Amino acid sequence: MIDNIRIQSQEIFPILQEIRHHIHAHPELSFQEYETSKYVASWLEKWGIEVQKNVAGTGMVGLIKGKNPDNICVGIRSELDALPIQEANEVSYKSQNDGVMHACGHDVHTTCLLGVAKILNDTKNEWEGTVKLIIQPGEEKHPGGASLMIKDGALNNPRPASLFALHVYPHLPSGTVGFRGGQYMASADEIYITIEGRGGHAALPHQTIDPIAISALVITGLQQVISRKGNPLIPSVLTFGKIEGGFATNVIPDKVEILGTLRTMDETWRYEAHQLIKDFTEKTCEAYGAKAKVEIPKGYPSLFNDENLTTFAHKKAEEYLGKEKVKTLNLRMAAEDFSFYTHEVPGCFFRIGTNLNEEQFIAPVHNSHFDIDENAMVTAVGTMAYLVRNALTKKD
């Protein structure tokens, strides 16, 4: 099986390049992936793969049925959306849509899913069970396309016994992959704070309620709240990325708006922190005569890789690539909406190395220069196909 999958993965490399270049050149923002969705569906239909379209908007679910399709179901997932970034690369497949770029590698993820789908579909007489393809919108935007896919029944009929997803990782060289069982990535919640004071002349602050001065107290104070109220053994990050208020040097404004994010590895502490943030902000503002409005919409939960499934996948990746090509990953405070799936079914979210010899393609994700060594897709497709084939026969 290993030799056959290696050969198949290499043989379809031109197809992978064609697909990736097209998707990369025509990026679409979260929940607006209309043409990308049509393009991806066209490949599945071309190969005779059953596709349910318009799931959670632009998402879709595909089914590849082997022998005895009711025996077991294994799922793989990818994302369609791009980021609001102007691409700086000068390549033949550069983004043709101003201000939009596949800077997080979702074009790669979807291309790899299609590659795996082709290999599995071409060999469906060799394996038993059903492979479910979950291709979702909006990973980059609240509330996360994964949550909407789940609500729209993407995990039902049939329900996967296990679910895999991969993600580009420019910190590892092409040809390698990385795994981490258990807790891997943080939850992510957006924070929106509005502080309403009373504006006036900058020379007469005693006649005003200065929301800018109060906002400074709130921002610095909340850092102490999170670091002093939280268990120091639980990783947490509170960052404010935007503060807006005022319009002149000599005017105290009526209000200030603050935007931020909370990341943590513990779901119980996560919601305790929400309340602490609200309480501290409201009481601090009240003490200075201002009013506070605090909104923390529920975001992505922490990502938990099933220990047994990840150990199994790590071992199988070593069989396919060799032990020296399989790495153990560190915890990450970044977030991923694949986490929604991991709270529903056993999941394994792993990384594929994408740099070339630690010298080229080293720009991080969410960067205007991000790109990959495309040979990484051969590794990714082959590894994922091998994992799925083995997961179809996995005995708990």
Quick overview of this protein structure:
By secondary structure, the chain is α/β, with parallel strands linked by helices. The chain is elongated, with a radius of gyration of 23 Å. The strands form 4 sheets. It has an 8-stranded mixed sheet, sandwiched between helices.
- Widest sheet: strand order? 1-2-4-3-5-16-6-15
Number of strands: 16
- The residue ranges in which pLDDT falls below 50 over 5 or more consecutive positions are none
Structural class: alpha/beta
In words, what does this structure look like?
This protein is α/β, with parallel strands linked by helices. It folds into 2 domains: 2-186 and 302-391, Zn peptidases (Aminopeptidase), CATH 3.40.630; 187-295, Alpha-Beta Plaits (2-Layer Sandwich). Helix content is 35%, strand content 25%. It has 10 helices and 16 strands. The protein has helices at 2-11, 13-25, 34-46, 106-122, 145-151, 211-229, 267-287, 307-321, 338-342, 375-391; strands at 50-55, 59-65, 73-79, 130-136, 162-173, 177-179, 182-185, 187-196, 200-201, 236-244, 251-252, 255-264, 291-295, 303-305, 326-328, 347-355. Strands 1-2-4-3-5-16-6-15 form an 8-stranded mixed beta sheet, with helices on both faces. Strands 10-12-8-13 form a 4-stranded antiparallel beta sheet, covered by helices on one side. It has a two-stranded antiparallel sheet with strand order 7-14. The two termini are 22 Å apart. The mean pLDDT is 97.
